[in-house]
Known about the structure:
alpha+beta, Thrombin, subunit H, 2 domains, six-stranded antiparallel beta barrel, two-stranded antiparallel ribbon, 14 strands, globular
Amino acid sequence: MSNAERRRYKRYDVNDMSGQIMYSVDARVLNMSIDGMAVETNHMVNVDRKYQIKLSNGVDTVELMGIVVWSNLVRTERLPTGDVVPVFKAGIKFENLLTDKAKKLLEFIDKNRILKLEHRLHGRFRIDSKTAKIGYPHDYQIKKISLSGMLIESDTMLDPGLELEFTLKINRNKQIKTRGRVINIKKEDDRNTYSMGIEFIKMSDKDKAILSDYLSRNHG
């Protein structure tokens, strides 16, 4: 979206709108059972927090919910860029594993397992999973908004250029979704929050009409 196009839309100051983003990080699965799994990731995951987990081998995909029961910093590693990053190891216990999901998970493990680990980890397998993503929703407050983007405030820092799916809560019973790109970010000095400019890059005509109607009715 060009600067000229963005300027066509009026920008509104708001204090009654909020939203959520599902921010996922990559993880390497160390081992897995029907009860849970151990992973390594370059991002810290928080104990006692629920995460959405997506497992994939390029063909099969399984989506689950789990809670982190332990997490430790185990080492650092140097990237090809020369940057040194932390490596965390964490244990995740699966939650609300319904019958159909349990079946899919067992099939996934059976198809991708490499070898069974020692007896003390009975029932736990190493698997050949190409990708694993772990994410949880982050809340944000909308400070300014137009039909082309918004200024949000959150305690989660997002990298400029990152594209994510944003959910905007219009009111208690209505919400819309849009794909957005982080344009800029500023650390607020007086509190542990970040102000971020978000450009909308994909919003359905229906959701755009809902947002336009809401802004004209409540902030026009």
